[in-house]
Amino acid sequence: MITFKSIKSRTLSISFLPISILLLIATFILIDQYHKLNDLKQIQKLTEVIVQGNSLVHELQKERGRTSGFFNSKGVKFSQELSTQRSSSDKEIQTFFDKLNRIKTAEYTEAIDSDFEAIKSSLKELPTNRGNVDNFSGIVDDYLKYYTQTIGKILKITRDLNVLVKGNYLLGKNINSYYNLLQYKERIGITRATYAGVFTNNSFTKNLYKRAIEINIESSEYYKNYIYYSNEEQLNFYKNTVVGDDIDKTESFIKSAMENSESQSLNINPAEWFAAISGKIDKLKKVEEKQSNQLIEMTILYYQDALFYIIITLVVATLVIAFMIYYAIYHSNKIVKPIKLAAYFADEISKGNLINI
User: Fold this and answer.
1) Each residue of 26-47: pLDDT tens digit?
2) Most exposed among 74, 274, 276, 344, judged by the fewest C-beta atoms under 10 Å?
3) Directed axis angle between helix 4-72 and helix 169-201, to 10°?
4) Is 320 buried (19+), middle (13-18) or exposed (0-12) by CB count in 10 A?
5) Closest Cα partner for 273 from 199, 163, 180, 352?
6) Nearest-angstrom CA–CA distance, 167 and 229
7) How far, CA to CA in Å, does 210 sit from each of 131, 191, 192, 261?
8) For residues 246 and 277, is the Cβ–Cβ distance under 8 A?
9) How many other β-carbons are positioned within 10 Å of the β-carbon of residue 10?
10) What is the pTM of this model?
């Protein structure tokens, strides 16, 4: 027997399907946005560690350059500077590990986790490397290679960060710009160490000349890539920052050395060289710091956008579902009410009670 209650239930059940579909769609959207939100939070934390790692790179680059001058002069030059620089490097290493210990690298990709393990292993060798330098054992190229390899391992994380931001074109483009800037700055750092050895010896060796040519080619390639990936604001800041006497002197020293590459007396003061190219690197560091801050700000902004989208989705879905439920109840009542009235009249007529009709 069909009752008014069953009629109302069947009327309401018609609305159940669209409400369920809407609820299912909203759930899928929220789950997807939650994963994106979590990924962006992880990227934000990792970016902060990477930026700190690149600050460590800056100090290791200076230590590498001073190590070259110290070793090649048998301790006559750069002794005090190297000691001071090692202290600065140690402070950055401690800060780097403090930030690194706040994240679980295993939660990221296998490559990123492997990168951090390689960095830890490499930094453990630093005291031994320094001790051998102080004892002037072996050859300087081996010690400079250690710094270059360690720095390379730290920089590699920035490249691997790109894997985590697939689908986000602007963030990926900024990471590529930042990465190529870091690699270009690293090549300038190697140039500093290479020519520190050249000017300390007052002449090129065959290996140093070859290395100077190679590093010039490498730095040019990374600079071209940096130009390609950078936006107008970044390029303008670079052009307005990396200018001045330090840059002019650096180019002048290199040009003079290459033009007299076969000379046994280049007559360029290694301390003046180091000061000039360090000035250039410090200016590159300013560009690096600006772009690292932009990168962190971008990850924060995308995180906030994702959070806002989740909140909006929740609010809209709740309001729409509430409206659909209200609409279904309202219309079911509109359908049942005249049926009830018709049934009442029919019942009265069947009883012969025409007065109440």
Assistant:
1) 788 778 877 777 778 888 888 8
2) 74
3) 10
4) middle
5) 199
6) 16
7) 28, 12, 15, 11
8) yes
9) 12
10) 0.78
